Amino acid sequence: MSAREFDLIERIRRRAATARDDVLLGIGDDAALLQVPTGQTLVVATDTLNAGVHFPVETAASDIGWKALAVNLSDLAAMGAQPAWCTLSLSLPDGDPAWVDAFLDGFTALAAMHGVALVGGDTTRGPLSVSVTVHGFVDAARALRRAAARDGDDVWVSGTLGDAAAALTQWRAGALIDSSLRERLDRPVPRVALGRALAGVANACIDVSDGLLADLTHVCVASGVGAQIDVDALPASEALRTGFGGDARRHLQAAGGDDYELCFTARSDERDAVEAAACEAGVAVTRIGTVVAGEGVDVRGSDGAPWGSDSAGWQHFA
Ligand code: ADP
Ligand code: MG
């Protein structure tokens, strides 16, 4: 390890402010010592963001820091877990301390909001890449698994869909990017409270990262069921409605991705419990369809006609 890397790690250690009693040993030794609460199961998820692949190269360092943790917390949320700890692996082209400080501004802001302690990591020289691992707890019997959707369940989604993809569309077109859409792309809000409130209420759950239809298809395949979705029931923000109409908007909502909302299924007699969970978490939820016997995701408009079946790229969801 070079002196420069040591300085960076020391910088990171000083900024890893969240203290937790269950961290017996954090940054500074060969490994961390962590205490899992009795009766709980450890939940672990990891996700990597590569420059130019997972975020535009000119993305602000603080936004990269926020998003690197947010996409991981979103995975814990989708399991119904309570986040506790994380590790951070940084590959940096030039080890610029100012960049690391700005990165940590975003990263630590979100970590503090969820009481997550940074307990270790790795710092290397290379193309810009950020890999985070998060650890949390859940009662395994209540964990929200992809394979738990059942014929007759309602299909729900939290928040609104398509905003992040809309920002990316505007960015690719070289157009002015609506600031609230850009916020959804750069600073996704992981639905941690909702996931926890849904544990024991919902059946299957997944976080929407690749696009609603792709991710719902994962749930259907894992559960051995199909789903019927009303594309016109998908929730849209004001900003999305203002900037995009008709099929362009439906496409962003159904297939855009980077939403980090939760898509989940629950028995229809759990509707009040789902609404109560959403209210407790302070997040809106919308019923967008039904789980059915069979396979594939059947997408229809509010008029009942199949949607998108004549446009390339849709068939593989059916
Ligand atoms: P080792 O050679 O044992 O891998 P390192 O020099 O890589 O040790 O790391 C020293 C300590 O600093 C370890 O506790 C490690 O977890 C921590 N660390 C290194 N990089 C980071 C980082 N980017 N974020 C948080 N902790 C880090
Ligand atoms: Mg190391």
Automatic annotation (TrEMBL):
Residue sites binding ATP per the record: 121-122, 146, 209
UniProt-listed CDD domains: ThiL
Keyword tags: ATP-binding, Kinase, Magnesium, Metal-binding, Nucleotide-binding, Thiamine biosynthesis, Transferase
Pathway: Cofactor biosynthesis; thiamine diphosphate biosynthesis; thiamine diphosphate from thiamine phosphate: step 1/1
Reactions the enzyme catalyzes: thiamine phosphate + ATP = thiamine diphosphate + ADP
Residues binding Mg(2+) 1: 46-47, 122
Nucleotide-binding found in the keyword field: yes
Coiled coil: none
GO molecular function: ATP binding; magnesium ion binding; thiamine-phosphate kinase activity
Similarity annotation: Belongs to the thiamine-monophosphate kinase family.
Other notes: Reaction mechanism of ThiL seems to utilize a direct, inline transfer of the gamma-phosphate of ATP to TMP rather than a phosphorylated enzyme intermediate.
Official protein name in the record: Thiamine-monophosphate kinase
